[in-house]
UniProtKB/TrEMBL annotation:
Domain Core-binding (CB): 25-110
Subcellular location: Cytoplasm
Organism: Ellagibacter isourolithinifaciens
Family statement: Belongs to the 'phage' integrase family. XerC subfamily.
Function: Site-specific tyrosine recombinase, which acts by catalyzing the cutting and rejoining of the recombining DNA molecules. The XerC-XerD complex is essential to convert dimers of the bacterial chromosome into monomers to permit their segregation at cell division. It also contributes to the segregational stability of plasmids.
Cross-referenced Pfam families: Phage_int_SAM_1 (PF02899), Phage_integrase (PF00589)
Protein name per Swiss-Prot or TrEMBL: Tyrosine recombinase XerC
Length: 328
């Protein structure tokens, strides 16, 4: 009897979980069509599409649980959804991201004639606190770049393995041109010009930009290209510049894993990510006197306002120096 009761309880629990995960078929198809449109019309990246699918899927499952028509929700319904996210202690950033996804989704539904109105257009998300990017101090950058280098921090020569040469080239590349990790993984061998000391990158929406490379980065990249890469390929052909030990494209996950391991070996803050190399690149350029438009072009930002966050970071650094220098 007890076993039967336990079995019934387990079945009920499974049904509750299944109910939590359910979504209306029509809504699911609409989300699929929307994601297809993102790729076809905006050339959205895989990461962008996955983020939209995740956020809209969460909304669709919420609407199913609340027995609401997700495609014809009212302004009040969407406010209720956002309020529940807030009650569940989702961060302001997450709530605003979900709201942005809903705005874009309902705008598409409206333009394509699937709905008559956009109930998300007038919604206002919670104000987000100022969040300045994390950057590496010069001495921390030196420690990070010494882990796989041919010389240690004291300048003593050290033997590099094939993967050391590759990983050093990746780190130097990230810092030298502020590339995103996805751009680094997708870098083609033909798009590195050693003579001109520059690289051709394809960012979000496949937007092309050419970024210069300094001598140290070029030396590291050339050493990898001439010595390590051919041996890692071992007779295989691969169009991508950075390759795995099996001679295939080195994926973003593998690069992130390598970066985390390097950060730990350097004894740095474990919260550092490859994107912080991009933040450091931009901040160091501005601190060195580069103008905002040039930094915008090198980062591949569509809007200047996106780049302006680094000016705030530079001001924060100046304030700290000011406070430390002046006794009053």
């Amino acid at each position: 009897m007890a076993a039967e009761s336990k079995r019934s309880s387990s079945v009920a629990g499974d049904e509750a979980v299944a109910e939590e995960q359910q979504i209306d078929v029509v809504v699911s198809c609409a989300i699929d069509d929307f994601c297809d449109a993102l790729v076809a019309e905006r050339n959205a990246s895989g990461n962008t599409v996955r983020a939209y699918r995740t956020d809209l899927g969460d909304y669709g499952r919420w609407a199913y649980r609340e027995k609401l028509d997700a495609l014809h929700a009212s302004h009040r319904d969407l406010r209720c959804y956002l309020a529940q996210l807030d009650a569940a202690r989702y961060s302001r950033r997450t709530v605003n991201r979900r709201l942005s996804a809903l705005r874009t989704f309902f705008r598409w539904l409206n333009v394509t004639g699937r709905v008559d109105a956009n109930p998300a257009s007038a919604l206002i998300g919670p104000k987000s606190g100022k969040h300045l990017p994390q950057v590496l101090r010069p001495r921390d950058m030196a420690r990070l770049l010494s882990v796989h280098a041919s010389r240690d921090l004291k300048g003593r020569p050290r033997e590099q393995s094939l993967t050391d040469m590759r990983d050093q080239a990746i780190l130097e590349f990230l810092y030298a041109c502020g590339a995103r990790i996805s751009e680094t993984s997708g870098l083609l061998a033909v798009n590195i010009d050693f003579d001109e000391k520059q690289a051709r990158l394809f960012g979000k929406g496949s937007k092309e930009r050419i970024v210069p490379l300094h001598d140290l980065a070029v030396d590291s990249l050339r050493r990898y290209a001439l010595v390590a890469r051919p041996k890692l390929l071992d007779g295989k052909e691969c169009p991508y510049f950075f390759v795995s030990t099996r001679g295939n494209q080195m994926k973003t996950d593998a690069m992130r894993k390598m970066f985390k391991a390097t950060v730990r070996e350097a004894g740095l803050d474990d919260s550092l990510s490859p994107h912080d190399m991009r933040h450091t690149f931009a901040t160091d350029l501005l601190n060195g006197g580069a103008d905002l438009r040039s930094v915008q072009e090198m980062l591949g930002h569509a809007q200047l306002s996106t780049t302006q966050v680094y000016t705030h970071l530079s001001v924060e650094r100046l304030k700290k120096v000011h406070d430390q220098a002046l006794p009053r």
